[in-house]
Amino acid sequence: MTLTVGALWRYPVKTLAGERLDVAEITPNGIVGDRVVHVRGPEGVRTSRRHHNLLGLHAVLGPDGEPLVDGDPWTSPTVLDRVRAAAGADATLARYDGPERFDVLPLLVATDGAVGEFGRDVRRLRPNIVIDGVDGMDEIDWPGSELRIGDVVIAIDSRRGRCPMTTVDPDTLQVDRDVLKDIIRRFDGKLALNAAVVHPGVVRVGDAVEIV
After folding, report:
1. Which CATH class for the 3-30+102-211 domain?
2. pLDDT reading at 66 higher than 80
C-alpha cells in the first residue's frame, strides 16, 4: 500500500467554505491560518449546522495572513453584511486563534478509501489532510498510530463523530438529512480521524505518507 497526500484544506473562517492548498505549514496548532476567525451571536459560536448559507461564503488566507471572505477583508462592513444575511442580524465575526477553536484536535485527516465508501463530496467532511492509497475503511484501525510525512509527524487519536454539517451540499447548500442517517447506519456515525501534531513542518500534495 503506497500512501500519499492527496489534498490539503484550510478554513480561515470556521464554518465557512475553505480553500484547497498545494502546500501547508503545520504547527502544533494545526495548519497555519486554519479557523482563526469565527462567527458569533449573543449566545456564542454560530455555525452552518443551523445557518446553512454560511457555507456559501468562501474564505482564504490573504497575503498578510488575515482571512479574506469572497475577496474582501474579514473585518470589512461588506463581509459583515454577508455574514449577517446568512446567520442573522446580530451575528458578528471575531478573532478565534486559540486551541479552543478546534472541535476536537487541530487536524482532521480523511482517507480516499473511506470517502469512496461514503460516496459523496469530501468537502462535506471538512478535512485538513486527505490521504490517498487507502483501502476501503482501513482508517478504522488507525487510531493509536502515527503518520510520518517528511519531517512532519501526526498522531491519530480517534475517529470523528459527524454532525449535521455533513447534510449540507457544499455547492447548492441544500440539506439532505439522509446523509447523516447514512453515516450513522453504515459507519457508526464516524468518518475521518482526529489528529494531533507531534512534530511540525511543511506538507505538500503528493508527499509520501508512512503509517507507524
Report:
1. mainly beta
2. yes
